[in-house]
Amino acid sequence: MLKENELKELRVSAAETxxxxxxxxxxxxSGHPGGSxxxxxxxxxxxxxxxxxxxxxxxxxxxxxxxxxxLSKGHAAPLLYSVLxxxxxxxxxxxxxxxKFGSRLxxxxxxxxxxxxxxxxxxxxxxGISIACGVALGLKLDKNPASVVVYTGDGELxxxxxxxxxxxxxxxxxxxxxxIIDRNKLQIDGYTEDVMSLDNLYDKxxxxxxxxxxxxxxDYNQIYDSFMKAKKCTQPCAIIANTIKGKGVSFMENQxxxxxxAPNDDELGKALKELKEGI
Length: 279
Description:
The chain is built from ten helices and seven strands. It starts with a helix and ends with a helix. By secondary structure, it is of the alpha/beta class. It has one domain: Rossmann fold (3-Layer(aba) Sandwich), CATH 3.40.50.970. It is globular. The strands form two sheets. It has a five-stranded parallel β-sheet with strand order 1-2-3-7-6, sandwiched between helices. Strands 4-5 form a two-stranded antiparallel sheet.
């Protein structure tokens, strides 16, 4: 359970993350606000309270024992970039170079740009969990105590490769693997349940021999407690985080149209005002 001062800190930092996301996408005139906003609470808790990651990407003595975070839904790169900058991995001023020619911060995370905190290139949906299985297995072979944490979208789970990875993780008993599912029930084409139903997702994952935890993905205590519990699981663990796409901005919430659209000047002003007033 988090203390009241910690909860306040997280509310402020998550609001700042959301404002950064909108400013970045507005400046770039393209990007994915909906699914980035829905994960701001989750990633702030992970990076501030849960993950064993250096405050900056330095080669400290315990560097190899760091937890590995993989953003499988790579189009939510503005979310990860914002959190990494807030944590001091690179200057926050760089955020406004999102998607610009010559910038390290492209529309999907890429290792070729040597961005501090980016473990692997992602963007082609359905690959992150498979990559994580390989990393988790390698860590086990090296007797490395680090965990591998994957952040994936629910629409992404319509890819068959995800379920092959779920099978492999259970077969290899990868208890160092945690998959967090952003269950906002929307994707670019509309409701996930209309495009290709995932329900009952909890039972599906249990049948694949995973431990499964369901939470409110905007409740800081539930996010924190579920991660601490997942770290103690004796088999791979999935956290189904029920979220709201576009969380924090009233006219973006639960609107599939904001999956991949940049706000104009007026929309940005309204959104930033709402977020500031909500802290």
